[in-house]
């Protein structure tokens, strides 16, 4: 930890440099820990498609950013190698929440699962991302 910053403050400061996720898309880190992260996105009209549903790219960006935080916070630099998203249902609420969990932590690779729900508990997507450790 740097100075008197909490883990959450430190993560928000470092990953806040990802302007696409934080400034353009509006994602916020709400929890961070050892190989895990929780991020959320307040939905606006900007996140919707022509039919009024949440754009798949917005959902994926939330999951990808959550993976980045979980796999890189106090860890060697890790980049995604492959990812798969399964869209499960339509968001009914006004906020999306992504929670990551480490499935496998190898010497040079890792695998995470990310559940995306809304604040009402509606399952929206399940994402798996494999990463390669560069550092």
List keywords for this structure.
135 residues, alpha+beta, six-stranded antiparallel sheet, 3 helices
Describe what this molecule looks like in 3D.
The structure is a single chain. The protein has 135 residues and is α+β, with helices and mostly antiparallel strands. Helices cover 24% and strands 41% of the residues. It is built from three helices and six strands. The protein has helices at 7-15, 19-25, 56-72, and strands spanning 27-33, 36-42, 78-87, 95-105, 109-118, 123-133. Strands 1-2-4-5-6-3 form a six-stranded antiparallel β-sheet. The two termini are 19 Å apart. The relative contact order is 0.19. The mean pLDDT is 95.
Helix content: 10-25%
Query: Uncertain runs with pLDDT below 50, 5 residues or more?
Result: none
Secondary-structure content class = alpha+beta
The radius of gyration over CA amounts to: 14 Å
Strand content: 35-45%
Largest sheet: 6 strands, antiparallel
Helix count?
3
H/E series, N to C? Answer: HHEEHEEEE
Q: Estimate the mean pLDDT confidence.
A: 95
Strand order of the largest sheet: 1-2-4-5-6-3
Spatial shape: globular
- N/C terminus separation: 19 Å
Number of strands: 6
């Amino acid at each position: 930890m740097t100075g008197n910053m909490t883990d959450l403050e430190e993560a928000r400061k470092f990953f806040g440099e990802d302007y696409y996720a934080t400034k353009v898309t509006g994602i916020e880190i709400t929890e961070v820990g050892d190989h895990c992260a929780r991020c959320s996105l307040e939905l606006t009209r900007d996140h919707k498609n022509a039919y009024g549903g949440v754009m798949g790219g917005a959902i994926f960006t939330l999951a990808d950013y959550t993976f980045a935080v979980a796999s890189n916070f106090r860890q060697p630099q890790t980049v995604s190698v492959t990812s798969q998203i399964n869209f499960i249902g339509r968001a009914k609420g006004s906020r999306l929440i992504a929670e990551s969990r480490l499935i496998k932590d190898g010497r040079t690779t890792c695998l995470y699962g990310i559940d995306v729900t809304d604040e009402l508990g509606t399952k929206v997507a399940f994402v798996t991302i494999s990463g390669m450790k560069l550092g």
